[in-house]
Amino acid sequence: MPELSVDFGLFIAYLIPGFIASLGISFVLAPVANLLSASARGEDLAGSIFGSVCLIVVVGMTISIWRAGLIDSSFTVDIPVFCDVRQDPQACGIHRADPVYSSLASKDRLEAYLVAEKNDKRPYQFYGNTLIAVVIFTAGWLLSDHGRQVSMRNRIAALALALLLVVTLYSAARLSHYRYTVSVLQFNALKGPAP
Q: Can you name the residues that pair with 88 across neighbouring β-strands?
């Protein structure tokens, strides 16, 4: 019987951003707020937890689609002020590279590729997904009754914090994407049969 395993990288890349965005959505959509609060209160524990987890997974996967379309595509564009191939190559445009799976035919090469995927692909997915989740959370909070009742000074502070998080997460996503792409290109360049 095959072992059931949980990929912690997938948990990080999809569930945490899905949870953050779901909280942001709950500020403006009462049904989402009711579902999440029922889980927190322990009402109909199994049903509310299952519903909350399903919601979080769907939101996390949807965010991942948005990340692939919006953020990943921006990695192909140079950041003019910072683009220096010798010092900051991740600031220069880099195109996505898909692995040539025939170069991963040996167990050793496949394991090395999986390590590269774990160390660089999952983090860039997490950073990019979390960036979008932070935007959704901030927008939901600002549009909610609570966000509108907060002083203008506190709203500006919340926006500044969100902007700082977005810039930090984007930079981290771009660097991790660059590292992953370089790893894939190196695997693709391997010639000959796998040892």
A: 84
Q: What is the pLDDT of residues 132-163, one digit of tens each?
A: 999 999 999 999 887 788 888 988 999 999 99
DSSP state of 195: -
Q: Where do the domains of the chain lie?
A: 8-189
Residue pair 166/182 in contact (Cβ under 8 Å)? The answer is no
Which amino acid is located at 128 in the chain? G
Q: Is the Cβ–Cβ distance between 87 and 42 less than 8 Å?
A: no
pTM for the model stands at: 0.84
CA distances to 62, 154, 156, 171 from 160, rounded to whole Å, are 26, 10, 6, 17
The interaxial angle of helices 107-116 and 152-189, nearest 10 deg, is 160
Give the helix/strand (H/E) hosting 125.
helix 122-143
Q: CB–CB of 66/156 below 8 Å?
A: no
Q: What is the distance between the alpha carbons of residues 89 and 85, in angstroms, rounded to a whole number?
A: 4
Establish how many alpha carbons lie within 13 A of residue 140's alpha carbon, considering only the half-sphere containing its beta carbon: 19
